[in-house]
Design goal:
The protein is an alpha/beta fold and 247 residues long. Helix content is 34%, strand content 30%.
């Protein structure tokens, strides 16, 4: 069953066509990946789904659990159960990590918050009283944002480049969290150009120049990484280009 559907979604910003006639079905409880090169439109697609300012004037329809949410604000979409972890997480000067996570939590229970931090290799005793500010590294802020998603128990989670600024050990913790979200029945959409992140998905879409050009099980989309490129409508594709598959 589809939890989220994009039907003929087109986005134009300052006369530039950013997304072109996007048609995607995201299945409930699956881990999906939207993959492709930098500049393909992946993060723009995520921002459009989330309903960020500047990304809501679209053509087409965004259907969440059978309801058109085109006119819904970010806050309204969040209340419906849609949330997003940014590639560069925000800072909140003056707010402690404990207060931030408690505000996000569906169940206001400090033990639950401690368990989630520990699952991300973040010592609760060390982090709960720290401020969510510039003293934290990008990797720490990313894990705290993921912790807020875990305690929030959202139904649809968008993770924009979850491996950005993360060391190998922390990345494996994030992968464990993705598996936990799936186990809970959460639908996860991974926005990525990383093969390691793509491998965490059940199903994937390949994006190029604002269009979905391929889809299928992750093994099918992995060929993009093996061959660096596949036939697509990108304006910079050389005339003499030939696919590497089979060579």
């Amino acid at each position: 069953m589809e939890v989220l559907q994009l039907k003929n979604v087109t986005l134009t910003i300052n006369d530039n066509h950013i997304l072109h006639n996007i048609n995607i079905d995201f299945w409930n409880g699956y881990v999906h990946a939207v993959s492709g090169p930098n500049g393909a439109g992946k993060s723009t697609l995520a921002s459009t789904i989330m309903g960020l300012e500047g990304y809501r004037e679209i053509q087409g329809d965004i259907i969440y659990q059978g309801e058109n949410i085109n006119d819904r604000s970010v806050d309204e979409r969040a209340r419906l159960g849609i949330t997003m972890a940014w590639q560069d997480p925000a800072r909140y000067e003056g707010l402690t990590i404990k207060d931030f996570l408690m505000a996000s939590a569906k169940i206001k229970n400090e033990d639950n918050i401690r368990d989630v931090l520990a699952s991300l290799s973040m010592n609760p005793q060390q982090y709960l009283k720290r401020a969510l500010d510039k003293t934290l590294s990008g990797g720490e802020r990313k894990k705290i944002e993921l912790a807020s998603i875990l305690v929030n128990e959202a139904r649809l989670v968008l993770l924009d480049e979850p491996d950005s600024g993360i060391d190998v050990e922390s990345l494996e913790r994030i992968f464990e969290s993705i598996r936990l979200l799936k186990k809970r029945g959460t639908t996860v959409i991974l926005i990525t150009h990383s093969l390691a992140v793509l491998q965490q998905a059940d199903h994937a879409f390949l994006m190029c120049s604002g269009e979905i050009i391929d889809k299928g099980e992750k093994e099918k989309i992995v060929k993009y990484f093996e061959n660096k490129c596949i036939p697509c409508p990108h304006k910079n594709i050389p005339d003499e280009w030939e696919p590497a598959v089979g060579k």
